Amino acid sequence: MAFAFPARLGILGGGQLARMLAEAASTLGVEVVVMEREPDSPAGRIAAREITGPWDDTDGLRALADESLAITLENEFVDVASLRWLEAHGARVFPTAATLARCQDKHDQKVAAASAGIAVTHFRAVAGADDIIEAAREWGWPLVLKARHNSYDGYGNVTVRGSDAIAPAFEALGFPARGLYVEAWVPFVRELAVIVARGHDGAAVTYPVAETVQEGHICRIVRAPAEVAPAVARLATQTASQVVEAFDGVGVFGVELFQTEGGGILFNEIAPRPHNSGHYTIEACVTSQFEQAIRITLGLPLGSAAMVTPVAVMVNVLGRADGSATSEGLDAALAIPGAHVHLYGKLASRTGRKMGHVTALGQTLAEAEARALAAADALRLVALE
Amino acid sequence: MAFAFPARLGILGGGQLARMLAEAASTLGVEVVVMEREPDSPAGRIAAREITGPWDDTDGLRALADESLAITLENEFVDVASLRWLEAHGARVFPTAATLARCQDKHDQKVAAASAGIAVTHFRAVAGADDIIEAAREWGWPLVLKARHNSYDGYGNVTVRGSDAIAPAFEALGFPARGLYVEAWVPFVRELAVIVARGHDGAAVTYPVAETVQEGHICRIVRAPAEVAPAVARLATQTASQVVEAFDGVGVFGVELFQTEGGGILFNEIAPRPHNSGHYTIEACVTSQFEQAIRITLGLPLGSAAMVTPVAVMVNVLGRADGSATSEGLDAALAIPGAHVHLYGKLASRTGRKMGHVTALGQTLAEAEARALAAADALRLVALE
Q: Is the pTM of this model over 0.90?
C-alpha cells in the first residue's frame, strides 16, 4: 500500500520517545502529528502539527485520525477508550487498543503472562494491609509494592521491609485512590531487557538482550549485548517473544526481565512502545527501535535488528537540579570521542528527570561505558548563573 | 558557552540538506528555523518555524536572526548580501559571508584555488564565442562550458565538442544573461569527493575520500572509501583541506576532485555546506556531516569523522516521472536487508529530481552497492494510479 506525500503519522504523547519517533519518521519523508496534554512538548516542537488537549478529547482524537495515515503511542498511560474510539472511527492504531488494555495495568499484565505459561515472581492484588501481611507470610520480607497504573521511572514502586512500612508506602503511592499490587522480592543477579518488534503478520524480530542497571528505580545504564551465557540470552529472548505474542502485540515492545541465580528468567513488565533500554539501537543496530515502530505502524516491512558494532552502552542523562534547562556541559560531552549525545530539548530540568542520553559504541563494554558515563556526567544542563 | 532551551538554529534554505540538518539538530535538543522562498519545503515541515520569503527580505532575515542562536545555510545560492546583512546585525553565521563570497562564483572559486597553489584544470571566463574558440585552440575539444552561478545537478554544465555546438550551449545555459566559464576537458579516471569539517579555531577533520559516479551530470552513486591507492587518498585529502583553508571556511564543505591518470588530483569545485557525497556519513561515520555542521554552527567541538563500518555505498533516488510523489516501492526497498532509506518528503516528483537516497553498509563495496542499488531501484515514488 503506497501513500502520498505529505504523509503524516500520529503519535499519542509528545515526550522524548515521541521525539525520537519523529526523528525516525522524518528520514522516511514522514512528518508527525503529536497529541499531548500540554503545549511545547519535546516532540511537539518538531511535529508538523501539535494537538494540545487531554487524550480523551474526541475533537483532538478526530483531528489526529483525520491527519494521520496511522497512529502509534509513546506511553501506556493513554486511555484504552481513546484507542478504541480511534479504531471505531476507522483509524489504524498500533499497538492496538486490545493490546494496550492488556498492558496498561501491571497487575493484569502479570496475570496474562502467567496464564500464558510465562515465569513470573509471586504477586497479588492489594485491597488493604492484610494482603501485604499475608504475602509476607507466604513469601517473606521484603516485598515490592507497585502501582497498577501510571508508574514510571520509580514513581510507583516502593520496597517494603516490614509491616511498619506498609502505611508510609500506602501514603507514598497514593493508596487507595491508586490501585496497588504486591510482589515477592526477586533475588535477581541482573536485570535484562529485550526489545521485540512484531509485525502485522505475527513475525517478530528481537534485539540483542541488554542489561539494565537501575539507580533509585530509574534506569541509569544499558549494556548491549548483556554479558550472559548464551543459554540465558536464548531464554530471555524466547521469554520476551512469548510475552509479546501473548499480548498479540503489533508494534515495538520493551520487555523487562529478571535473571535469577541459576540462570532462570522471570518476566517483570512490558511496555507497549519503544523503551529506554532500546535507545542504544539508534547507533548500534541496523534498524533502530524507533524506525522499526514507524515501519510497523505504517505497515512496512521489519528491518534487521542486528548490531553494527560489538557492543554499545547507553547512559541516561538525568536532571541534577530543578530549574531551566541549558546546554551546560554539552561542549565537554561532545569532546569525548564517540559519545553520541541525545538531548530531548526539555525546557525544565528536575532532579532525576530524563533529560537526554548518551550512547557509546565500542569493542568492550568497559571502555564504551567509561566514555558514555564521562559524557553523561559532563552534561550538567542546569540553569545559567 | 551554554545556551538555554528551547534552542533554535537558523537555516537559509529548506531542501533535503536542511531537513537532514534539522534531524541532526533535533538529536541535540535543538530545533530549527528555516527560511525558504516557498512554503512547505522538506525542512520547513519539520521546523519549529518556517519563514517564507525571498532570501534578501530583511524582515525575514531579522526574524531568522532574532529566533536563532546561530545560522547556517544549505545552499550556495543565498545572496552574499543577505549573509553580510545578518552578520552586520549581530548574527553568528557559518560559513561566513566572506567564505560564501569566495565560493559562490565557480569561476572565481577556481581563481582563488589556483592562486593558493591548488591544482586545477585550464579554465577561463567566457565573454563570447571567441573565448571558447580560443580555449579549444589551446586545450583542444571537447570543452566543458559551465554556469558561474546557480548550477546544480547538471543544470549548468554542457560539454561542447566543436564550434557548431557553442550557440546551442549558450542557449541551453542562458548566456549572456547567465555568466559562463569554460574548462579544458579533464580525462579523469575517477571523480572523488572529500567532506571537510573545519571549526572556528581552524582545526579540521576530513572524512574518508569517496568516489562519486555521475550519470548525466547528476550524482548517482557514492562509494566510501574510494578504492584508490593510499597516496592518492592522501593527496585528495590534503587538497580538500587546503581548499577549505584557502577559503577560510568554518563549517562543513564538500570538495569535488578529479583523479587523473598517474594519480594526480585536480580541484573541481567546493560547496560551502553538507554535500551529497557525504550522505553516507549518517550511518557510516561516528559523526555525520550534518551533526558536524550543527556542532560547528553552535560553536561546539568537532566529532570524529571515522567510519564505523568497512565500506558504505550511497545511491541517490531520482524522480522517474513528473507527478505527485508517493511511497510507491518503499515496502520493497525496506525489505532489502540493511538498506537505509532516506526520503525527503518532496511533494512533487520530477524526472531526475533528488527525491531521496539509500545507504548500505558492508564488508565490500560490491555487495553494499548491489543492495543500495536494489533498494533505490525499487523506489518508484510516482503518483498512485
A: yes
